[in-house]
Specification:
Largest sheet: 6 strands, parallel
Shape: globular
Structural class: alpha/beta
Distance between the termini: 37 Å
Order of helices and strands: HEHEEEHEEHHHHHEEHHEEHEEH
Helix content: 25-40%
Strand content: 15-25%
Bound molecules: guanosine-5'-monophosphate, manganese (II) ion
Oligomer: single chain
Amino acid sequence: MYTTVEHAAPALASYLDDKHHILLITHVNPDGDAIGSLTGLGLALEALGHAVTLLTPNSPPPFVANIPAVNRIQSYSHATYLPPTVDMVVLVDTGDVKRIARIWEDAHEYLLARPIAVIDHHVTNSGEGNVNYVDASRSSTCELIYELLRAWDFPITPDIATALLFGITTDTQSFRTSNTTPSALRTAADLLDVGADRERIVHDVYNNVAVSTARLIGHALLALRDDGPIVWTYVTLAMQAACGAHDDAAAEVTDYLSSLGGFLVSVLFKERGGGIIRVSLRSLPSVDVSAVAQQFGGGGHRQAAGCTLVTSLAEAEERVLAAVRAALGLQPGVPSRAVV
Ligand code: 5GP
Ligand code: MN
């Protein structure tokens, strides 16, 4: 596993150089960093003379619709044609192969028949590629791709700059998380220098919440509970249907929860149907929620992580909140209010 661009850039270049057709894939329920990495690297590889196919396990959320080249992305279905001409696979922003969900379940033989590169910044990344560039100290996979393109002396276009800045902006929650390093800020500045469309990004991230999402936030906030340093709520399928909310609307509830003062950890439980509960965890820098998510087979970052449980909403709440309390060093069931 390479953790520095000095080593990763030549290694990745030697894998990619003689390849004609590159399949880029990112994780299920792709976020801004996933899509920015996919299209930013995809456009660069295309400019370098490769054929590229961009693939996501399910459709990207509406707020990424203006990221350059997003219309080039194919959203996977069982009928999706995976071209036999592909001679290299690149997974971006993907902590482990299971995060590409149905693509992995259906097509792992196809994927494993080709060299796989992984470019990622998740602390839980297991390095499953033939070549892995993983640096968990970086804000985003988009920041790693910027480093890579610069090491290759690639001239970054305004479209690529916009895609990469989108991912850095969203993965740092707009330069608020602890991985908002000097390097992340310098990268953002460099991307502005080469023409990234900051106004577009700010509009799409902040002035773009649907009314149906606002209603869902309202429902979820009515159900809000707090106990000492932990705040949580849930989104059920019924709430989502009542509001006519998009499948990704719950992400806005997660953001709202994490903005509340006086808590160390916030948790959103989202009912998915078929007995599946998706859990989103957020924390202040002193608490590592990726370790909590890992206990349930998930992963992520210190301050933003997630996992999936196959159980009832009540049972998921009980189990995950117990693990959060344990991570905070609290007695089971009797947390005391923390001084934050
Ligand atoms: P979210 O709560 O927004 O779904 O996810 C927060 C972060 O945790 C993201 O970086 C996401 O990629 C990661 N994450 C969420 N769920 C999982 C999971 O089930 N497994 C792993 N490895 N990472 C996850
Ligand atoms: Mn990311």
